[in-house]
Amino acid sequence: MKFSVWAIVVVLCLAPFCAHAESVCPRPEPGSMVQEPEDLRSQNGVLEAQLTASNAAQANGAIRYCYTDAAGHESPTLRVHPGDLVVLHLINALTELSHASTAAMPAHAHAHSAANPCTSGIMSPVSTNLHFHGLTIPPVCHQDDVMKTSVQPGDAPFEYRFKVPGNEPPGLYWYHPHIHGFSKEQLLGGASGALIVEGIERAKKATAGLPERVFVIRDLDLINPNAPPAKSEPVVPKFLIDRDGDAANNGTGFGKPAKDLSINYVPVPYPDYPPATIKMKPGEKQLWRVLNASAITYLNLSVLFNRVPQSLGLVAMDGVPMNLNDSLKDSVDPQNHIGLPPGARVEFIVNGPAEGVTGLLVTRTVDTGPGGENDTNRMLAKIVASPNAPESRTKLESSPQPLAPSSEAWLGSVAPVLVRHLYFSEKLTDPNDPTSAVEFYLTVDGQEPKMFDMSSDIPNIVAKQRTVEDWVIENRSRELHAFHIHQLHFLLLDYMGRQVNEDFLRDTVNVPYYDGRSLAYPTVRLRMDFRDPNIVGTFVYHCHLLEHEDKGMMGSIRVDPASPPVSENNARTRCGARDAGAPCKEFHLGKN
Ligand SMILES: [Cu+2]
């Protein structure tokens, strides 16, 4: 059966379709120079652009996805300022490729769908939409709704139109499709791009005047799935497949990885991991903005010179400047490795190698747990110091106006109105058959564990605008999960029961796996911020390992308007000021 599907793909690529397939979402060769995505910049407060979502099958059966702008640039970086208007015209040019009978049917061959793109909620392999990961914009159609918004091939260009909030922290955000059940396939194929809210130099003086680079790291199906590991690697236990069909974590950091990685679409394939090339001027200081747009792969980034990890000057995580809340506001946090779950971003200052020294950008292994994927040690790019390295396309302003301090109380100092408990868990569909399919759950404690149902109109959680809540998220499974919520950032208070009380915000956080022995499951405690005057309505939270999300690890939350309604003028009222005196109530559905 497998043979016939492959044969059809090969035949298609011998037909005139092949040239078509190669010209759709073209990709550089391994080892190439890392080119940065084209920048689309707002002008006079408006960024208007066209994005066409396309896909094509390759000769090896892999399917590539990308966005192209009107000039044909692949997955451009959208650059906006706080307060800007963004207007995007999304065209769905996807073709049905997963079923041989309709393989490579051009999008225009589909009839115009009669479905309303704002309400249909169609989740199919050729549906698409956009999620603006990290932006605090409303969960409504034409802005950032992924529950009902679905654009079909042949539909008229679909308009996204939203205002970047005036108080959006400056940093790295991103866009990607969010079609439940098909997110993994579209992201693995490359459907993602960066979005930058300008002005980080206004928050972090150390970045003023620096040249900046944007690196999007994506994962993809193995290009050489049958190759044995490189001879230079230590011998590892026999290769095993995990329950999701990927190379299982073998705990050594070596062997076959679950997925290959690419940097700005330059693939770095197993087994030799030929690094891409990044050129810098000798000793040059740059701001690197790195997005982990992988579907399932964790990153643990380091920069090595002569095998020695270098100090990276961390300035922002998940689009939010570090030390937002303390006297170190303008400082830089030195780190020699930085962990990034799928979906997360990091911005750091790198000092280029001296002339004659070659640096390496690597990702070190991540222990994803006994049920997790094999995320191995590997090179991503070599950093070549050369006096004639091209000038960076973008330089941050050299004498920026400092960002005004937020007039809103720091999230960490606002009392939560309640505490909710949620947990990640997994279940075999047939408990007696370890090879049976796995269901993935993200459950509010007290509710029945269920795979997320897109058609349900009943939210799992109802919260009140202008309040703040604490969520304790537990991992009862034997692999890592990455908790992400749309529309807002949160504060990480505790990690594995240890108080961390970070002084910055995140939108994606790793939740450690259960070791099978401890008396308690691992947890993170998050302070969730529902104070935003713009955020009312229903949206989702989920695991950002998209394989897990697609198979059910998601929930929905409805934020009801504050009473009296929040106006722009009183939006800054501290909910904590009203609620601080009230006791912080532990909240268990069904238990009280
Ligand atoms: Cu997960």
Word description of this protein:
The protein is mainly beta and 592 residues long. Helices cover 7% and strands 34% of the residues. It has six helices and 36 strands. Strands 10, 11, 12, 14, 17, 18, 19, 21 and 24 form a nine-stranded mixed beta sheet that branches. Strands 25, 26, 28, 30, 31, 33 and 36 form a seven-stranded mixed beta sheet that branches. Strand 2 and strand 3 form a beta hairpin. The longest helix is centred in the N-terminal third of the chain and has 13 residues. The relative contact order is 0.12. Bound molecules: copper (II) ion (CU). Copper (II) ion binds next to loops.
**C-alpha geometry:** globular
- Main β-sheet: number of strands, strand sense, barrel status? 9 strands, mixed
Low-confidence segments, given as residue ranges, are: 1-19, 99-111, 568-592
Number of E strands: 36
Which features would summarize this protein structure in a list?
592 residues, mainly beta, seven-stranded mixed beta sheet, disordered N terminus, binds copper (II) ion
